[in-house]
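In this supplementary section we document a worked example of the pipeline. Step one takes a protein sequence of length 133 as its only input; no multiple sequence alignment statistics are reported here. Step two produces a three-dimensional model, which step three serialises into structure tokens for compact storage. The input and output of this example are shown verbatim.
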Amino acid sequence: MKELRTFEEFFSVTLPSDYRQFLLEAGNGGAGPYYGLLPLSGAFVYGNLAKPFALTGEWDQSDCQEPEDEIPETYRDGCLAISEHGCGYWSFLVVTGPERGMVWDDFTCVGTGIRPTGKSFSAWYRGWLKPGL
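The serialised model returned by step three reads:
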């Protein structure tokens, strides 16, 4: 798919293999968890996609005492939004760094932080198709 190659070249990354395979074989966006999967053209990049995602565990925003304790922008590097939950909540796929290939949830809009789902893209998507997986 030309759009996939263009995306990876533009951002200087190679997307995780299970996500790449999904894009090539199943489709670019559409039915999926929450409000569906975002197509590459509609997905948004949090920060610098080529830089490693900084988190390796949950970041609890409710521990922050001051407004200036907001999430550092560098924690948004290396990830790509793949699904909108609504009300400002997002699921994103880590594409660079130690958590590469894992889906995380962003609840920073309500001050509770960023949490790993503990699932790869394919496990996350299969869990939506057949709950309990």
